[in-house]
User: Fold this.
Amino acid sequence: DGGITQSPKYLFRKEGQNVTLSCEQNLNHDAMYWYRQDPGQGLRLIYYSQIVNDFQKGDIAEGYSVSREKKESFPLTVTSAQKNPTAFYLCASNSVNEQFFGPGTRLTVL
Amino acid sequence: DQQVKQNSPSLSVQEGRISILNCDYTNSMFDYFLWYKKYPAEGPTFLISISSIKDKNEDGRFTVFLNKSAKHLSLHIVPSQPGDSAVYFCAASLNNQGGKLIFGQGTELSVKP
Assistant:
């Protein structure tokens, strides 16, 4: 049963704490992506990785960091430098001309 | 600079009628377009796509039309069903950018029984 998993579904953190969001895929895709969705806005690209041990900044990378040590995994860390971290975070991976999305993580910073 | 725009944040349609969702783009180099459907608190799911070499693609109740000269695409759903109620995103990609997608803001479709 192939797909993308994100955990946890809901995450609460105190302001000033770093938090890491998990993303795992068993689709054997090379490329993986992190997006953020805010109300009334589309999906905005945070970081993406086209191959293991390589990643690039997207449109809104400030305050975020990623790693890609394994093909299957692309964790996203939301750091204390991110000024407005409360949002819905989506991970995706790429097949030819199509992106598959995980179920998302709702992060709320209190 | 919003390269992909969905200017209607919401659309309400009666069950059985046609739903038409619109999307405009500014970059004439985009060569592939996709539509995604998204329910609240879930990830988007792929619906239908179209290459820039075509002007129409049909899949069941869903048809996407591409007008390259106007830089406009539209998604037609007919007949509309209550289960189609969701947020629809259009997205565009450039072949030489490794699969990066640029999304519109989304249109929330409500199909009323």
User: Anything to note?
Assistant: Chain B has a mean pLDDT of 94. The CA atoms of residues 37 and 45 of chain B lie 5 Å apart.
